[in-house]
Q: What sequence folds into this?
């Protein structure tokens, strides 16, 4: 099963006005490890043509990328206004 | 004059327990939760052990949605080919209820409702930005540029405590503090679950696993809990080992667990209902920050109150107990009219007298056992070799047990003296 | 006017009985109503008008009203009574119109264009009819200028700009703006202020005008469309005339007069 299929069962209320995580791609450009791409269980961080790609919309809000990034690129906040993932089971 | 006696940030087991206790004592309490409804951001990789809830919700076994009473416990080493278990089931659990499987979206919503019924004001769907400070003292919380004042703030925001970090009340979390938890909910008919796990009625199974088949440096534990008509299955992955490894994906570890030849048959035919991830506090006592100060207290996972020795994973009971202790501290502080750091210091003493800090102190350095080559590679390898050579009939003369142990340990990748030393350390820490 | 609906993301079709299973779905504010509220809040921000949110539904709908007040609405009114239950869009419109009248003088009534749980789009226009006021449907944005309201309507292939005097009712399209977040300050104030609950006695409507009794709609039958197998075929440019012929013969396409 691919990650897209797993995430497709989730209910998200996506906030179009606020990305709760932002990355500084200039820093990612020179990143030697890109551990975010191994740590993030939702695979929000991918490398395409050697460039880091990030999508906050798929985030399940675990916080892994916040400490996974040791280069100061990831800025992590909680989504606002009840937005983001809405677990039914937990 | 503050608007509230206390503001609690986070409506999980710690926060709601604190709010219920304070509201029961007629304090003017605000409970703020970023999820709407409460529980919809929360994930657990554990069992609700003990009956800490009884103190605030006498009829908790009726009032709180519980899944199954755990009567059957397993600890298993999974190698590539084999499964080696300690299996414990006891009818004693039927008399002395020890633990329940729970689904947090349901449980936490019920806890928040209990807080509302007790008289706390519950605001959901609002994310607190940081605590408000005045001359170094916490005087309330800040949200969208506005300050809501309170005599005390209890931070119970879980394993990824943004408010505490962003307010400078604890240092940012690191590899040594947390593991990465990944989880799936699989739906299966109730009777299929009962048949597969040999359970009757509402009895439940809770299994912990060491995923020793993993390659490279990666180390992970697994869990499998039966709910009424779903199974909670997940992996808890060491952050530092995953980083060391540098080529294994957390997602693939979860996948490898559910697809393992000894696990997959248990889930066969099930429907994926949810995929989730959450941080798991793993740092033990060394990860616990300063848990009180002028005008504030930290409870539950936000304070690092969680414990695992591989046989037992505990967190929700610590959360509830620490939430109640924080509430009692605020209640006493209100009687004294003093919310200074000195006045709130009794919080730590309460926890030192309870199992929360006792456990964490007794098991200092347990992470060096739960996350080690010995536990994750050597022991399972030795056990597998030993049991296989015992049970596998070759038609040749039998060997003595000691000889087999020594032979088994030979290809575990550790020297004899190393093994003896590590085993001794392990026994002491556990 | 808003409605609390079961979260469409959490509704699933029972694979055996082919019925909608709503039991596990949690309540949310109907998405288009969130956009209607946002549009009303933008008008309130500019004009200082009082904004009252009305909903009809079970007592649990209170949380939806608190959320609206948390975003900036001044009052929340919950029309709730067992006798209002099982109302169709006719009886619902009539009841809501009675509530709007009871509030008193008003300039604008703003509602979502349709709901995700029934999708008729009847209620907004129905309320306008019962109030005997004009309506502008499919609105994406609006502002008030003196006695008039300027609206943009999305007509799919065109945008129509309408200027009309008030009072008027607007129905707002889903996704036409980005709803703001509620704030802690406003939500605390909303909970303290509380919502107003209006029942059958408050509205004082004849009993056979409301609820199931006041609902002339009869559901004839429910049919679930058969899933059709889709076929794929790879063609080149040269095959197009042949493909058109085949599609015509299969009845997929026809001559204009036939369609």
A:
């Amino acid at each position: 099963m691919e990650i897209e299929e797993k995430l497709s069962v989730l209910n998200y209320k996506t906030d179009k006005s606020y990305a709760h995580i932002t990355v500084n791609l200039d820093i990612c450009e020179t990143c030697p490890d890109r551990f975010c791409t191994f740590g993030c269980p939702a695979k929000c961080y991918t490398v395409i043509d050697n460039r880091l790609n990030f999508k906050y919309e798929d985030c399940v809000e675990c916080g892994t990328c916040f400490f996974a990034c040791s280069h100061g690129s990831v800025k992590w906040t909680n989504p606002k206004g009840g937005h983001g993932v809405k677990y039914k089971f937990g | 004059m503050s608007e509230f006696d206390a503001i609690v940030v986070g409506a999980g087991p710690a926060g709601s327990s604190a709010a219920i206790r304070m509201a029961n004592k007629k304090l003017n309490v605000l409970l703020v939760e970023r999820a709407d409804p409460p529980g919809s951001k929360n994930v657990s990789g554990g069992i609700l052990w003990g009956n800490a809830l009884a103190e605030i919700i006498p009829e908790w076994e009726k009032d709180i949605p519980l899944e199954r009473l755990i009567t059957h416990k397993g600890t298993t080493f999974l190698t590539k080919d084999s499964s080696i278990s300690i299996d414990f089931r006891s009818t004693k659990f039927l008399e002395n209820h020890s633990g329940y499987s729970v689904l947090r979206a349901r449980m936490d919503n019920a806890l928040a409702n209990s807080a509302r019924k007790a008289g706390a004001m519950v605001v959901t769907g609002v994310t607190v930005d940081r605590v408000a400070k005045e001359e170094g003292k916490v005087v309330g919380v800040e949200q969208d540029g506005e300050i809501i004042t309170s005599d005390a703030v209890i931070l119970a925001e879980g394993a990824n405590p943004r408010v505490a970090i962003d307010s400078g009340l604890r240092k940012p979390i690191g590899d040594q503090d947390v593991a990465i938890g990944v989880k799936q909910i699989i739906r299966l008919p109730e009777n299929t679950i009962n048949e597969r796990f040999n359970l009757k009625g509402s009895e439940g199974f809770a299994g912990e696993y060491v995923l020793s088949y993993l390659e490279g440096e990666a180390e992970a534990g697994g869990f499998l809990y039966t709910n009424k008509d779903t199974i909670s299955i997940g992996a808890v992955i060491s952050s530092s080992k995953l980083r060391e490894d540098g080529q294994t994906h957390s997602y693939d570890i979860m996948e490898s667990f559910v697809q393992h030849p000894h696990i997959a048959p248990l889930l066969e035919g099930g429907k994926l209902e949810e995929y989730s991830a959450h941080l798991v506090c793993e740092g033990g006592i060394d990860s616990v920050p300063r848990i009180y100060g002028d005008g504030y207290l930290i409870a539950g996972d936000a304070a690092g109150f969680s414990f695992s020795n591989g046989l037992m994973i505990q967190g929700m009971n610590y959360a509830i107990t620490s939430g109640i202790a924080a509430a009692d501290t605020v209640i006493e502080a209100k009687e004294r009219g003093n919310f200074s750091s000195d006045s709130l210091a009794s919080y730590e003493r309460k926890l030192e007298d309870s199992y929360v800090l006792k456990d964490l102190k007794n098991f200092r350095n347990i992470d060096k056992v739960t996350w080690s080559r010995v536990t994750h590679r050597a022991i399972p390898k030795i056990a597998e070799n030993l049991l296989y050579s015992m049970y596998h009939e070759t038609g040749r003369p039998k060997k003595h047990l000691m000889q087999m142990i020594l032979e088994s340990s030979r290809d575990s990748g550790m020297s004899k003296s190393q093994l003896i030393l590590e085993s001794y350390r392990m026994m002491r820490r556990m | 006017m808003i409605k609390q609906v079961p979260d469409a993301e959490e509704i699933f079709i029972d694979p055996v009985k082919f019925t909608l299973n709503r039991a596990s779905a949690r309540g949310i504010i109907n998405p288009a109503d969130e956009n209607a509220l946002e549009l009303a809040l933008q008008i309130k921000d500019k004009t200082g008008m009082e904004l009252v949110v009305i909903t009809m539904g079970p007592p649990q709908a209170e949380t939806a009203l608190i959320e609206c007040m948390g975003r900036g609405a001044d009052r929340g009114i919950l029309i709730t009574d067992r006798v209002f239950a099982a109302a169709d869009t006719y009886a619902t419109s009539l009841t809501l119109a009675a509530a709007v009248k009871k509030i008193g003088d008003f300039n604008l009534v703003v509602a979502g264009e349709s709901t995700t749980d029934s999708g008729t789009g009847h209620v907004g226009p129905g309320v306008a009819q019962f109030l005997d006021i004009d309506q502008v449907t499919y609105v994406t944005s609006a502002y008030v200028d003196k006695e008039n309201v300027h609206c943009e309507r999305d007509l799919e292939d065109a945008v129509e700009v309408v200027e009309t005097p008030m009072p008027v009712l607007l129905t707002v399209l889903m996704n036409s703006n980005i709803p703001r977040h509620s704030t802690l300050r406003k939500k605390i104030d909303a909970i303290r202020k509380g919502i107003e609950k209006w029942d059958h006695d408050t509205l004082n409507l004849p009993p056979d005008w409301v609820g199931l009794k006041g609902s002339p709609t009869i559901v004839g039958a429910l049919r679930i469309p058969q899933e059709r197998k889709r076929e794929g075929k790879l063609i080149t440019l040269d095959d197009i005339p042949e493909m058109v012929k085949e599609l015509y013969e299969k009845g997929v396409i026809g001559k204009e007069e036939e369609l």
Remarks:
- The interface with chain C takes residues 11-13, 16-17, 80-81, 83, 86, 88 of chain A (CB under 8 Å).
